[in-house]
Every structure is written in C-alpha cells, then in structure tokens.
Amino acid sequence: MDRIIEYMLEEDKGFGDITSEALVEKDLEVNAYIISKDEGILAGMNIVKDLFEEFDVEVVYNLEDGSKITKKDLLMSVKGNARTILLLERTVLNLSMRMSGVASAASYYSSLVKNHDVRIAGTRKTSPALAKFDKYALKVGGVDTHRFSLDDMVLIKDNHIAVFKSPLDALLKAKANVSFSKKIEIEVETLSDAIECVKNKADIVMLDNMSGNEVKEVIDELEKLNIRQNSLIEVSGGITEDNIMDYVESGVDIISIGALTHSSRSLNFSLKIE
C-alpha cells in the first residue's frame, strides 16, 4: 500500500472504528456505491479501486478517471465487508474529491486556451504529502504537471538569485555546474534580465508577476533582437480566468498557475450503503 494512503487510514482509524464495531456485525456483507453531488472531471478512481481491492472489497463498477460527471452520477459500486467499507469511506472520499477538484480546475483552464498554441501548467504549490496525487490530477485534467520534485530540473528562483549580483550570474553558474541532461529555468522580473537570460540560452525564462502588457513588451523586444527562439517563455503569478487571455495573446509558451492545486475546490461525493 502507498505509505501516504496508509498514513491517511491510520490517521482516520486511530485505535479503531468504535462506532462500526459497536453497531455493525463483524461478518456483515453489503453493497455500497459512491455518487457525485457535483459536476466536473473525475480523478482518483483508479487509486480508490486499488485501495478497495487491497482490503478485499470487490469493485463491481467504476467510471474511469477523466470522465465528465454531473450531479447524481454513479461513480463506483462495491461489495464487501460492511466494517471495512466504513473504515475506508472517508479516506477514499477525501482523496477522490480533492483530486477531482484539481482535475476539474485544470480542465477548465485548459479549455480557455484550447484554440491557442500555449501550454497550461501546474506548480509545486501542492498540499503537503499529496503532491503526487495533485500532479496526477493535473494530468487527468489535461494540463502539464511541471516539476514533480526538486530534482526534475533546475529552477532558479528569487531566493537563489538573492546571493548573486544578477540573474545572469546565477544562470551562468548553473550552466557551468549542471549536467547537460537537465533543463535550466530562471525566474526574472525585468525586461533587461529577460533579454540577458534569453541571449545566454536559458532553456526556459519565467516572467514572474508581470502584467500581460509587460510580457508582450518583453516578447516583442526578444523578436526584434532575433533571439526569441533561444528560450521558452513562461509566465506565472496572479493569472486568473479574467486575465489569462492577455498572456495568451502576448505570445508566451507556458502559463503556470499555482491556484490549480493550492486553491481548487474539492468536488462533493457521497458513499451510500444499500
């Protein structure tokens, strides 16, 4: 069993489910089902299915991850020991509801730019210990996962740059010390720093907390200098459904949105025993 899910179960169980042990016969077999009280994109059913089966609960039916769901949709039906199903109930619901919320937000933002040559990405602003589940949900929702962990790629941020004279100095040191097999991304806040880092062929230059107009100014200047092709241009910070098209129309390659994971609303599901 995944150790994070094992921890979730142990946290929920404590020293035992005293309610079920007091009320439910030990060998009682029941049918149960999970229904949606919301609409969106489903995620986490594969994980829930594996968890039920690991505890000898038979999964009779389930929708696949990525399915579009509406209120009252049957998401999964199971058959097994009543105490076991009740023990697993809150963990499977909490995890699948959160993952489906992230997937739904990701799908929504992806739909906003579907006719444009730009990629939406998540960030590492995930819930502690839930990063891999959040990242999987982003993928189900149709957006790029960005980095899974610190060893995926070099991402030079403001706190790294703080110990250097300029972003360019940090970039050059990274290029000198990092294997060719790892991409290097650097965060910049000004037009001049963006130009210098693109001139020196950072794989990705992130324009941090710039307005759509400021981003367009940077890209226009890179094109005038004939260096636009040197680097992918990513934007991040303060991007919402109300202003996202300003960034899309500026000509960026990647739009990363931390809110997909740190602010997504969980969907609402319910487990019912027949």
Q: What can you tell me about this protein's structure?
A:
With 274 residues, the chain is of the alpha/beta class. The protein folds into 2 domains: 3-110 and 264-273, Alpha-Beta Complex (Aldehyde Oxidoreductase, domain 3), CATH 3.90.1170; 153-257, Aldolase class I (TIM Barrel, Alpha-Beta Barrel), CATH 3.20.20.70. It is 42% helix and 20% strand. It contains 11 helices and 12 strands. The chain has helices spanning 3-13, 18-23, 45-54, 82-112, 131-141, 158-161, 167-177, 191-199, 212-224, 244-248, 259-262, and strands at residues 29-36, 40-41, 58-62, 68-69, 74-81, 119-121, 154-156, 184-188, 204-208, 232-236, 254-256, 269-273. The strands form 3 sheets. It has a 6-stranded parallel sheet. A 4-stranded antiparallel sheet has the order 3-5-1-12, covered by helices on one side. A two-stranded antiparallel sheet has the order 2-4. Helix 8 links the parallel strand 8 and strand 9. Helix 3 runs antiparallel to helix 4 (82-112).
List the helices and strands and how they pair.
Blueprint: H1 3-13, H2 18-23, E1 29-36, E2 40-41, H3 45-54, E3 58-62, E4 68-69, E5 74-81, H4 82-112, E6 119-121, H5 131-141, E7 154-156, H6 158-161, H7 167-177, E8 184-188, H8 191-199, E9 204-208, H9 212-224, E10 232-236, H10 244-248, E11 254-256, H11 259-262, E12 269-273
Parallel strand pairs: 6-11, 7-8, 8-9, 9-10, 10-11
Antiparallel strand pairs: 1-5, 1-12, 2-4, 3-5
Helix pairs in contact: 1-4, 3-4, 4-5, 8-9
Pfam families: QRPTase_C, QRPTase_N
EC number: 2.4.2.19
Domain Quinolinate phosphoribosyl transferase N-terminal: 17-100
